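Hypothesis: this fold can be encoded by more than one sequence.
Test: take the C-alpha cells below, design a sequence, compare later.
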C-alpha cells in the first residue's frame, strides 16, 4: 500500500492557487482512476483506490500547509507504513511552469508543507515536484505562490494534471524515470 499526499490549503478561496497544485494532482488522479468516495480522516480528506496493481491512498491534509506533517504522520502511523510508501505531490518554484520531476529525499527549499512533513517524519520520502516557475524576484514569491493560475495557463495546467494521472501507474510501480519521461512526451504532444 502507498500513501500519496497532495499539498495545499483547504477552502474554496485557495482552490486555484499555485500552492494547491498538489491537491489538484490528487483530484485528477482520483477521477481518472475511479477512486472511492472522500472520507474525512487523519485531519484531511482520504480516498482509497487502485492504480495499476497497487493499492493507493490519496490524502489531502486539511491542516493548512504549515501543519501538513500532522495529518501525514497520523495516516502513516495508522497504516504502519514505511517511508518508502510515501509520495508527496507539491508545488515547486525552482522548476519551470508545468514541468514534473520526481526526487527521493532532500531539503525543503523553503516549502512549509515539506518542512512540516520533514519535521514529523524525516526527509526520506519521494517527492513529485510540480513546477510553478519563479516570479523572478524573492519579494514576489508569496504573491506568486498564493496567486491563482492565470487563465492563459489553464490549458498547460490541465495537460500536466492529465499526464500525471495517465502515467500514475508507472509512479505506483516505482518507474519514476519513465513516469517523468512519459509526462514530458505527453506535454510536448499536447503543446
Amino acid at each position: 500500500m502507498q500513501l500519496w499526499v497532495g499539498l495545499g490549503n483547504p477552502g474554496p478561496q485557495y482552490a486555484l492557487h499555485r500552492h494547491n497544485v498538489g491537491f489538484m494532482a490528487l483530484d485528477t488522479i482520483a477521477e481518472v482512476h475511479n477512486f472511492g468516495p472522500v472520507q474525512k480522516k487523519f485531519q484531511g480528506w482520504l480516498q482509497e483506490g487502485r492504480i495499476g496493481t497497487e493499492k493507493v491512498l490519496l490524502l489531502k491534509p486539511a491542516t493548512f500547509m504549515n501543519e501538513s506533517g500532522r495529518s501525514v504522520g497520523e495516516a502513516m502511523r495508522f497504516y504502519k507504513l514505511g517511508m518508502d510508501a510515501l509520495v508527496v505531490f507539491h508545488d515547486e518554484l525552482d522548476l519551470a511552469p508545468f514541468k514534473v520531476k520526481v526526487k527521493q529525499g532532500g531539503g525543503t527549499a523553503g516549502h512549509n508543507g515539506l518542512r512540516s512533513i520533514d519535521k514529523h517524519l524525516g526527509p526520506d520520502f519521494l517527492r513529485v515536484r510540480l513546477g510553478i516557475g519563479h516570479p523572478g524576484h524573492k519579494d514576489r514569491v508569496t504573491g506568486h505562490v498564493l496567486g491563482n493560475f492565470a487563465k492563459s495557463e489553464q490549458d498547460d495546467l490541465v495537460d500536466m494534471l492529465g499526464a500525471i494521472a495517465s502515467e500514475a501507474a508507472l509512479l505506483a510501480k516505482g518507474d519514476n524515470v519513465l513516469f517523468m519521461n512519459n509526462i514530458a512526451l505527453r506535454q510536448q504532444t499536447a503543446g
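The chain has a mean pLDDT of 95. Strands lie at 2-6, 39-41, 44-51, 54-61, 86-92, 100-104, 126-131.
Hypothesis status: open.
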